[in-house]
Design brief:
The structure is a single chain. This protein is of the alpha+beta class and 251 residues long. The protein has three domains: 73 residues, Arc Repressor Mutant, subunit A (Orthogonal Bundle), CATH 1.10.10; 86 residues, YebC, transcriptional regulation domain (Alpha-Beta Plaits); 71 residues, YebC, transcriptional regulation domain (Alpha-Beta Plaits, 2-Layer Sandwich). The longest helix is centred in the N-terminal third of the chain and has 17 residues.
Length: 251
């Protein structure tokens, strides 16, 4: 998971910059809508919704926007008639890299057309459902910062039902678990006084494609950046590894 975690770190750093853009506000609001629709519209009893709200607040989204998004998800908001649905798209990027795209859209045809254009202009191909998803497993991930004692983290992780963990830098760890156990792991780590800064669902590749050619790397990252820039796209995951020096240059 090491290569994927390095890329995840770079994506988080990029997200800090992106948080200043309206797109991130839209993404976070849509995540709240879907979370409220998939469960009860009460964050106290809906972990997915509670997590989405925490991320929205951290990004500076006003409370009235958050409440409006919850109402839309619950079906109690009458301000517009748009209906969002969650769709997963799949394709291949330069070098045969497998790419998963999670989207929220009110128009499937528009989203598919935008994705197809992004792939074709950047050396990739939008594929059929199932063409690459078999190479990924969805996991729950807790991001833990300020880790002083790795042994205590291991003990707490095991108690919380974690499958594995990885130190991504000197004091930051990613702890992995089954999707259904994410809330329990998150709560256990917090009860053990660990600083959990994020709890999310993430697609983890079972195999990775090594990208060490600078032109291929440039095309791949341009494709990912283009996909992430589309209004309907919530998240992009790819199964590549890249030498750290090349990744730093590209980032």
């Amino acid at each position: 998971m090491a290569g994927h975690s390095k890329w995840a770190n770079i994506k988080r750093q990029k997200a800090v910059v992106d948080a200043k853009k309206g797109k991130t506000f839209t993404q976070l609001s849509r995540a709240i809508i879907i979370a409220a629709r998939n469960g009860i519209p009460d964050p106290a009893g809906n972990f997915q919704l509670r997590t989405a709200i925490e991320k929205a607040k951290a990004a500076g989204i006003p409370n009235e926007n958050i409440e409006r998004a919850i109402a839309k998800g619950a079906g109690t908001f009458t301000g517009d008639g748009s209906s969002l649905e969650a769709i997963r798209y799949e394709g291949y990027g330069p070098g045969g890299v497998a790419i998963l795209i999670e989207a929220l859209t009110d128009n499937r045809n528009r989203t598919a057309a935008d994705l197809r254009a992004a792939f074709s202009k950047n050396g990739g191909n939008l594929g059929e459902t199932g063409c690459v998803s078999w190479m990924f497993d969805q996991k729950g991930v807790c991001i833990v910062e300020g880790v002083e004692d790795e042994e205590k983290l291991l003990e707490a992780s095991l108690e919380g039902g974690a499958e594995s963990y990885e130190m991504t830098d000197e004091k930051t760890a990613e702890v992995f678990t089954e999707v259904a156990n994410l809330e329990n792991l998150n709560q256990t780590l917090k009860e053990k006084n660990f600083q959990v800064t994020d709890a999310e669902l993430r697609w983890i590749p079972s195999n990775n494609v090594e990208i060490d050619n600078i032109e291929q790397a440039r095309s791949l990252l341009k494709l990912i950046d283009t996909l992430e820039g589309l209004d309907d796209v919530q998240n992009v995951t790819a199964n590549f590894e890249m030498p750290e020096n090349l990744m730093v240059v590209m980032a």
